[in-house]
């Protein structure tokens, strides 16, 4: 039996993380936020005063990554965002983390969210979703998230940083942020979390044969 892998890609604050976690819960599948791997590598570099663009240092930290690094509470925020984007552009870092991601998905199936799951990590995944929203809406969501955590931030600055990261992620030569050719696009600009989830779940049901319901945990349609 081939493990069910669902790839959920998209830019920051599009809602892909919330959506992927809900899908994993509904389908009784493990969930992995692959962005945390790159954030943790970036944070390890920042802790040591190293430049996240230093390929040799970043690769060494990627190879030294431990599960405890993913549990840190400082993997979010502008500094971590940009450091993650910088290390993600380094081919050797991506190579060091690729097998880790694939092993996670192949063990029991999984829902993985990131930026290159459907294009690089699991190009043969039976379900690929690309979740996006307008830059203005994504910036507003991130701004509200930061405020909720007590972080002072100007909306205009948050949007500028988000656009800069979008450009960095989309313009890198290795695994750039883009939808897989066979991915289904979900624009969450005007969707709340429940509507986005229902849309995604319907797409999963349409892609997975009904006779696989019992072995994948896929809930039957009402």
TrEMBL record:
Highest taxon listed in the record's lineage: Bacteria
Reaction(s) catalysed by this chain's protein: dCMP + ATP = dCDP + ADP; CMP + ATP = CDP + ADP
Residues binding ATP: 10-18
This enzyme's EC code(s): 2.7.4.25
Molecular function GO terms recorded: kinase activity
NCBIfam families xref list: cmk (TIGR00017)
Family: Belongs to the cytidylate kinase family. Type 1 subfamily.
Record-given protein name: Cytidylate kinase
Encoding gene (name): cmk
């Amino acid at each position: 039996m081939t493990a069910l892998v669902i790839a959920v890609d998209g830019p920051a604050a599009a809602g892909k993380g919330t959506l992927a976690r809900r899908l994993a819960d509904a389908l009784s599948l493990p969930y992995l936020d692959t962005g945390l791997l790159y954030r943790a590598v970036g944070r390890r570099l920042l802790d040591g005063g190293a430049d996240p663009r230093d390929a040799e240092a970043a690769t060494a930290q990627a190879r030294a990554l431990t599960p405890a690094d993913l549990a840190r509470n400082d993997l979010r925020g502008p500094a971590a965002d940009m450091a993650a984007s910088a290390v993600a552009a380094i081919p050797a870092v991506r190579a060091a983390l690729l097998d880790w991601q694939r092993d996670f998905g192949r063990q029991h199936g999984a829902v993985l969210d990131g930026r290159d799951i459907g294009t690089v990590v699991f190009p043969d995944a039976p379900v690929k979703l690309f979740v996006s929203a307008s830059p203005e809406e994504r910036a507003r969501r991130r701004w509200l998230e930061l405020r909720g955590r007590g972080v002072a931030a100007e909306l205009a600055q948050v949007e500028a940083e988000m656009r800069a990261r979008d450009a960095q992620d989309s313009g890198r030569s290795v695994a750039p942020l883009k939808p897989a050719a066979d991915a289904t696009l979900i624009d969450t600009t005007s969707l709340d979390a429940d509507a986005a989830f229902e849309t995604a779940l319907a797409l999963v049901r349409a892609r997975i044969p009904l006779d696989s319901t019992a072995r994948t945990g896929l809930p039957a349609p009402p």
